[in-house]
Amino acid sequence: MKTHFLLAVFSLCSILLRAQTLPNPILFCTQVPQPFGFATSLETFGNHQASTFSAPRGGDLYIRYPDGSLKNLTQMAGYGQTEMQGATSIAVRDPSVHWSGTKALFSMVIGSATARYQVQSYRWKLYEITGLGKNDTPVITLVPNQPVGYNNIQPIYGTDDRILFTTDMPLGGAAHLYPQHDEYESSPIVSGIWRLDPKACSMADGLEMLTHSPSGDFTPSIDHAGRVIFTRWDHLQRDQQADADIIDNTGYGTFNYADETANAAKSSILPDVEIFPEPRPGRTDLLSLPQWANTNPQNFNIFNPWMMNEDGTEMEMLNHLGRHEMGNYMTQNFTNDPNLHDFYTPISPTPIRAMFHIRESPVTPGLYYGIEAPEFGTHASGMVVKVNAPPGMHPEQITFTYVTHPDTRSPDETPSANHSGMYRTPLPLSDGQVIVSHSHATDYDENIGTSGAPLSKYDYRIRLLEANGGYFKASATALTGAGITKTVSWWSPDELLTYSGILWETYPVEVKVTPRPTTPTLHLQTVAPSEQALFAAAGVNLHDFQKFLRRNNLSVLAIRDVTSRDDADQQQPFNLKVSGSAHQTINPVSPSPVYEVKHLQFLQNDLLRGIGGMATPKPGRRGIAKFLHDPTAVAYNPPTTGAQGSANIHPDGSAAMIVPAKRALTWQLTDANNKGIVRERLWISTKAGEVRTCTSCHGESTLNQAGSTSPANAPQALTTLLNYVKGIDRDNDGIKDIYDAFPTDAARHIAEPLNEQFVANLTHWINQNLDNDAITWTTESNTCHANAAVINNRAADNTGKIDRLRRFVDLTNMDSASLTFDVAYARYDAIKFDKLRVWAIACDGTQQLLYDKSGGTLATAPDQTGLFTPADCSQWRKETVNLSAYAGKTLELVFEDVGGWGNRLFLDNILIQETGISPPCPDTLLVSGTITSGKYDAATTITTQNSGPTTVSAGTNVMLNAGKSVTLQPGFEAQNGSIFKAYIGGCGY
After folding, report:
1. Which residues, given as ranges, of the chain have pLDDT below 70?
2. Start-end of H helices in 678-834
3. Based on the number of CB atoms within 10 Å of its own CB, is 782 exposed (0-12), middle (13-18) or buried (19 or more)?
4. Is the dihedral angle over the CA atoms 974, 978, 983, 988 positive or is it negative?
5. How many H helices and E strands in the chain?
6. Number of C-alpha atoms within 13 angstroms, CB side, residue 839?
7. Cβ 549 vs Cβ 537: under 8 Å
8. How far apart are CA 804 and CA 123, in angstroms?
9. Closest among 98, 980, 189, 803 to 509, alpha carbons compared
10. Tell me, what's the pLDDT at 6?
11. What's the confidence (pLDDT) of residue 786?
12. CA-CA distance, 213 to 216, in Å (whole number)?
């Protein structure tokens, strides 16, 4: 009997082992349990903070191999502490595996108080780990070029190996705006999704904001189609803390900053300065005003699935899903329109209120798993859901599926038999199985321990989902067996806290090779054929126009027909007519009343709301909606008959406007009296250079309110915008702003990332004297050049010694580039001579030799045994080097003198400019007065002034390049010692 019993136990263990077999290793994090919810690291929002309250120290990054064995990766790499948590203690989160399966990113915070009452600031930082194999030694390195002094979390690898992540670095990196406050509790929040290039020369070169979210974007991932999928907190409503201060005098201390500057004036919240959207419930004082007559109050709170291209363009809800498809109660906007009604019944028969932790199935592309969870009290855990939403599927065809029983969507003190616990971070595996982080607790969490030894109700362990009737539930056996135990102590910092027991297991990810998307959504600079035809008709090159937008941090939003609206949206007016035009879109079933709309009005999110009182305000600011006023955007928009931030709606129903990029925007349709008729309910942001066309304000999922498909008209408003912009020349230099990198500086044209005439000597250069001897680069004035760089190779025998001038050059907004410089040199003789080299060094350290001349090839004058100084301008030569291989990048430019005990070498007029611009210069150009050194281009003719002198002064070097003619009128003078050249051959000759 005993033998049989042992065999039975062995057989049972074998079955369990087979049930837990996984195809690949699993990375996951352990964490000391934290029973408190708000603003801690597993919460729905505000989870980015790194204090020991938000993220108790003592967890580690682990890997589980397919045979069930575990390895503590952070410990083996030399990170973390046991027992008392001090200066080298850690917490970890958010692992994400590289496409190759050989390395991973994660976030880690290091440090804790080492003594009682020791208050310090901590930050999550991004790290990369290699050596994930079972027999490898893991190595952890800090990711370069990430924001310093901010919390950086949720990193993923882009298809080009740049890193997408979320951070609480504020808009524009302005430290005085830190932290950004959310729109709900005015508590700290991440500002959006950012991208960094770890191979860039510096953070400034490689860091960019992809989204600006007033209340936060979370957990980005890239699906098989190259789309970035993430959760966005949509909470576009007025400030509830300010409302409470005004109505109930609650003492939040809300107030207004005059603008976003560091020293902006402060003022009371009264009179109420908020303008959008409608007042919140409870503001009867505002709702009784004439402008809000017959208007319902507005509040809004939902965590939606969103998508965008990997470069930040085309941001919208996943497959254009909305509340009508997902399910969320909405009140009608106006109370006096019988056509409008409250919304109760979503299109999906299985609606959801939120979707967190979204992951695509590697087995079924376009199938996404996530969690519907309440906002508070469950550490963002709830019901596992999934949705099939591949690219191109219409929203009305999309339904959600409850993977775990619907009873798991909410905590319950008296759960039903169907409530199997709380779930978070579902992970679909490459073999079709799904892992979750699961807790048996079914209630809201709370501290069931003591103040000094807090304990959580929750017991998060990573488990497989297994079938359970028509749903799934967590397996009874955790993937880590009995679990990972630890005993830790830490200062709170006021009190010594302890925990001893099993650690939480969170953030599972599969370690495997993942094919990169075959069509990554990067650098997509196209518009639909109808809009492309408008660019061609206006004579504006789309590529060049997008570069103009990028240079000025702008984008374009164009709408084909604002009168067309989704047929499901009957909460806001839908019988819309263009004021002064016959164009309209009318619902045939309910054809009246008809609303005339005249303007599309944009609003921008300005960080202006403070809290805590004007005398001692809390750090950071909350964003509120203000009518668009960005000065650069305003400068390029056509005149409007509407209020601030408005664009006229054209007779065909279209509207177009230049807007600031990298800033949250929203909008409304207004009538002739600038009253809002239809209001957007979401914030969006755009990428610099983006030209975005929408079919309508609330785009049709399938049909609009008249039963028609989406508008396909070429928007007349875009033509008006293009024709207006292409004629602007703000500095009157003859070069239109869309082709001028310096639109407010008449002295500089096109793109000049480097224009060095050594006026400030060597201030802008790193002067590298490798031998630390007396021979080094310096500057001096000479004939023909007011100042030039010079090195005296004759001062001593410096054979083989190297001296360099180095400088970083930003070519990120250039498509092609050329380097020109002037050189003057004479050998000592045929034996003693020197060499000049020019190198380009990329930020990853690779270098290319661009120019290499020495001796007679380098010389511009005969041999001289005395010190060489150019006698006149004829002893200078202009050299040209093609830099187009580095266009779009940052590089280090190095001029290198290789000594040969020869003679003096001179450099001047180092210029990098763009070539191949269409067009690169104005059609005609009039030059007058004293002409400074440089090139003057015109597509057809250049003419000097007829009624006064035009002078090329001594010591200047002037080129006039024209396509047809250069006409020198009487009074033109090229003084002795100047260089003057004129060419007929075209722009950029």
Report:
1. 1-19, 749-751, 916-921, 985-989
2. 716-725
3. buried
4. negative
5. 11, 61
6. 17
7. no
8. 39
9. 98
10. 31
11. 86
12. 5
